[in-house]
Amino acid sequence: MNKQLLRVLCILFVIVIGISAAVIYFTFDRRAFEYLAMFQPWYLLLAFATVFIGLFFDATRLITLTKLSDESINYKHVLNVVLSNYFLALLTPGQSGGGIAQLMFLKRAGVPVAKATVIIIVRIFMSILFLMVIMPLVFFLDPSLVSGLPTGVLVPMCVLFIVLPLLLVRFVYTGRMEKWLMRFCMRFSEEKQKAIFLWYRDFQQAMFLLGKHPKMVFRTFLESGISLLFIYSVVPICMLAFDIEFKWSVVMSRMCLLNLILYFTPTPGGAGVAEGGFLLLFNSLVPSGLAGVLAVLWRFFCEYVPFGLGGIVTIRAFGTDVITQIRSRRNIE
Predict the structure, then answer these.
(1) Do residues 226 and 57 lie in contact, with contact meaning Cβ atoms separated by under 8 Å?
(2) How far apart are CA 281 and CA 54, in angstroms?
(3) Distances, alpha carbon 233 to alpha carbons 41, 249, 300, 321, in Å
């Protein structure tokens, strides 16, 4: 195996095992043994099933997006794109390799790089948009999340979650965003300005693409939501395995909030932040000593299983020097 890839995998393995062990060690207590004795393993099969259903709808979303851009792609290539994102996002700082891996597979499937870039931006945007739009519902279903906020703050915040994406699209269409971006970038070097405007150009093209096909955009939005909700359902299923009493609405609400935050974390795959955020949100919902175990199970099913599958398809397609290819971007230049 390529030494660079092996070194990165070893570092990742140490980080994952270290974080998982620390989370369990600092949260585990004697009462947890009682719940571990009641654990029902067959729920693990249900957890696997929900993850794969979520990945399936992620794949159908990608097919819808390729049709939006007047391209076509089969399920084999789509699954490669989806799984490779998990693999390279977890191996690279700030999850930067995930997008490049998707570009590489989309190019292999015959999608031009310019269109592939737009597709990937829309795919990410749709996931974030779904989570932002349902945030008012999250706060309604789980009022304890915002119990310390006065109504005068909570209502504008909920409105902002819904209106902000719409304002962003409007500013892109009217050209205001570009003017603000020019003023903002004046303080940076010419090279950084170029990189920012190249990214903005791709984002602008993604917004224009969405405006041309409103019905398919709504379908993509629904597929994004179904995919995310099935994947997040792993947590309540694992809680059922331990025979824990809970409200589905509360657990799913907190999972939506946590994963929205994770989209903006700089660590690979949200490592460390995900586990810490899970403990913060779920310590009060589960019996003492089980929060760490549930956090590790969640990460195993929703990140590490897709990561392993993504590693297989990515290395088979691009070889063991895939990290070098990602860093040099030779395949997409």
Answers:
(1) yes
(2) 23
(3) 16, 11, 13, 35
Residues shown for the chain: 333
Residue-wise pLDDT tens digits, 225-268: 999 999 999 999 999 999 888 899 999 999 999 998 888 887 76
Alpha-carbon gap, residue 202 to 212, rounded angstroms:
16
- Residue spans per domain, the chain: 3-328
CA 323 to chain centre: 21
Rg (CA), the chain: 21
Greatest distance between any 2 Cα atoms in the chain: 62
Residue type (1 letter), 274: A
Indicate the helix (H) or strand (E) that contains 77. helix 75-91
- pLDDT value at residue 253: 93
Q: What pLDDT score was predicted for residue 330?
A: 44
SS3 of residue 190 by DSSP: helix
Say if CB 90 and CB 299 are below 8 A apart.
no
Cα(277)–Cα(264) distance, integer angstroms: 13
* Best CA proximity match to 223, nearest among 52, 54, 46: 54
Side chain identity, residue 222: L
Q: How far apart are CA 211 and CA 167, in angstroms?
A: 14
Q: Is the pLDDT of residue 333 over 60?
A: no
DSSP code at position 143: G
Q: Mind listing the pLDDT tens digit for each residue in 134-193?
A: 988 988 888 888 776 666 666 777 777 777 777 777 777 777 777 887 877 777 777 777
Q: For 275-292, what is the mean pLDDT?
A: 88
Rounded to whole angstroms, the Cα distance separating 192 from 317 reads 32
Question: What are 80-113's pLDDT values in tens digits?
Answer: 888 888 887 777 654 556 777 788 888 888 888 7
